[in-house]
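Supplementary Note 3. Input sequence used for the single-chain structure prediction.
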Amino acid sequence: MFFTLPTLLTWTRIIAIPLIVGVFYLPLPESTRNLVATVMFIVFAATDWADGYLARKLNQTSAFGAFLDPVADKFLVCASLLVLVHLQRADVFVALIIIGREIAISALREWMAQIGASRSVAVHMLGKVKTTVQMLAIPFLLYDGRLFGFVDTGVWGVWLIWLAAVLTVWSMIYYLQKAIPEIRSRVK
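The predicted structure, written as discrete structure tokens, is reproduced below.
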């Protein structure tokens, strides 16, 4: 099911990456680049909700879609974090924590699936909260200005991205704790 509407929406998150990065190379005022990148990120990030909803509603769920959806999310978040580090709006340490966790947990899930224990590292609410905080922090940092004349998105974005980093570590520990008993029983 490569070309269902939900899967096409998922692909848009991957296609969005060079578009969002490219905005920062356009000969536009910085505030315009920030606004365009922010709107693009929000629109493309919203496809995460839309593709899941439509897949269930249209009965178009597939193994490929289930694989591609988290990959697209991780690509979009990681690319955006790298842009923010480059723009000096996010600390490289935060990016390393978030990107490192994504790699580690993806590898853990793959391994657990290979040994038939994927249920022990199934997506948990803590991971969803972490993702939500990241998806709030990133547009705040991309915008990097005053919203409605008084909300300093740069300050809020920094606080939110650090909160996301804390939640990232917490969720990684949670998943590792869930996996360790299964790993121990299989390694013996």
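Residues 153-187 form the longest helix (35 residues). The two ends are 39 Å apart (CA to CA).
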